[in-house]
Design a protein that fits this description.
Oligomer: single chain
CATH class of the largest domain: Alpha Beta
Shape: globular
Radius of gyration: 20 Å
CATH superfamily of the largest domain: Vaccinia Virus protein VP39
Order of helices and strands: HHEEHEEEEHEHEHEHEHEHEE
Strand content: 25-35%
Structural class: alpha/beta
Strand order of the largest sheet: 9-8-7-10-11-13-12
CATH architecture of the largest domain: 3-Layer(aba) Sandwich
Length: 276
């Protein structure tokens, strides 16, 4: 039985039409957290909806309602607990990897699992990789599990996310290749003193603002995976062109792909840039 079927006797037909049954489940078969958007018109029924999710999905122990957009340098939303346990820490399993995390304390998108797999497939043996805005280290760990990269640095400014990254590196036994670093990428990259074969920038809202840092850590042939938000206009290419001009870097766009829908007529995209 799906969520709408379960709620058919508890919500009116008009209310059921307004209910968005697309939600994320973060965690495992043993314990998971459901994250759902509930329109303002159904605010009075949010606890009923939350309890229904606990019943329909037995592994879900907590239901969080989105209360804001992502904000701040940590990219966190405000959530309201509408059903279940206040303990929202979970063990999420993906691509043969295990991640301990708490969606209320760190950014993590279950919908980007296929993207992490895709990037891992592109990596070649012996690469040195920099992951900016690394979060709880899903990109570095999936890559390390799938391909024999030489070294992967994961830089994250959120202390709580960084602590989870350190734990996740140990959980997945990739400490010989993945190095979590706490700090601002602008400051951290100055101290690394390295050039990388591949740089990931999974901060779609404003990663392009850090392209000068990525360029300073690049050499001839470096691949940069720049994530951004783009509508009908081709705005991201223009931003890359301007940042490259300021940095005195020559580059070539290898591809641009839609990763996920973001809002009507707007997508999260990945621009693959090769430094030449």
């Amino acid at each position: 039985m799906n969520l709408k079927e379960f709620l058919s006797g508890k919500l009116t037909k008009e209310e059921l039409k307004k209910l968005n049954t697309s939600f994320d489940i973060v965690g495992s078969r043993e314990k998971a957290v459901a994250i759902i958007e509930i329109p303002e018109e159904l605010k009075r029924k949010e606890k009923i909806i939350g309890k229904a999710l606990l019943t329909v999905h037995r592994n879900v122990k907590s239901v969080l309602k989105k209360s804001s957009e992502r904000k701040g340098i940590f990219r966190l939303r405000d959530y309201k607990l509408i059903a279940g346990s206040r303990n929202t820490e979970v063990m999420h399993r993906e691509s043969g990897c295990t991640f301990r995390l708490d969606p209320r304390k760190n950014y993590f998108s279950v919908r980007e699992g296929m993207e992490r797999e895709r990037i891992a497939r592109e990596v070649e043996e012996g690469e040195r990789i920099l992951v900016m805005f690394g979060g709880v280290a899903p990109f570095p760990i999936v890559i390390a599990k799938k391909k024999p990269a030489k070294k992967i640095y994961s830089v994250e400014i959120n202390p709580k996310a960084h602590n989870y990254a350190v734990e996740n590196v140990l959980l997945n036994k990739v400490g010989n290749r993945v190095v979590p670093i706490l700090g601002d990428v602008r400051e951290v990259c100055k101290t690394l003193g390295e050039e990388f074969n591949r740089i990931l920038m999974p901060l779609p809202e404003n990663a392009y603002e850090f392209l000068d840092v990525a360029f300073s850590c690049s050499h001839h042939g470096t691949i940069i995976h720049l994530y951004g938000i783009e509508g009908p206009e081709d705005g991201l290419n223009k931003k890359v062109k301007e940042m490259a001009r300021k940095s005195g870097v020559k580059y070539r766009i290898l591809s641009k792909r839609k990763v996920l829908p973001y809002s009507p007529r707007t997508f999260k995209v990945c621009l693959e840039i090769k430094v030449i």
